[in-house]
Write a structure and sequence with these properties.
The protein is an all-alpha fold. Helices cover 52% and strands 0% of the residues.
């Protein structure tokens, strides 16, 4: 059991992100093809649940821990699903200038990655 998830690991960004990604993929896979759109919501729910659970055990923090837990949940969600990486569709072609988008594509900072 020491090689699998522990409470301490789930309280870390790496462990919480891995648990979020695994849970969303397993539950989405069990639902089937219709579960693909639900995966992002499952991941958000798991990330917030883990964050608020960790905050509940933080005895030395004040009431602001609940606000911080919300933002920590968003960080876990972002790390689990790779929101911090630019989608491949937005990357310029290798021949194109780095400041201009690939031909025929509109430059966008955020695009659907699900």
């Amino acid at each position: 059991m020491n090689d699998l998830f522990t409470w301490a690991a789930l309280g870390s960004l790496t462990g919480a992100s891995a648990a979020t990604l695994l849970t969303a993929n397993v539950v989405g896979g069990l639902i089937g093809p219709s579960g693909d759109k639900a995966r992002k919501w499952i991941a958000l729910g798991v990330a917030l649940l883990l964050s608020y659970t960790t905050a509940a055990f933080a005895t030395e923090a004040g009431a602001e821990k609940w606000i911080i837990a919300f933002f920590n949940g968003l960080v876990i969600f972002s790390a689990a699903l790779g929101v911090n990486q630019m989608p491949p569709g937005n990357r310029p072609a290798t021949q194109a200038s780095p400041t201009q988008p690939a031909q025929g594509r509109e430059a966008r900072f955020v695009r659907s990655w699900v």
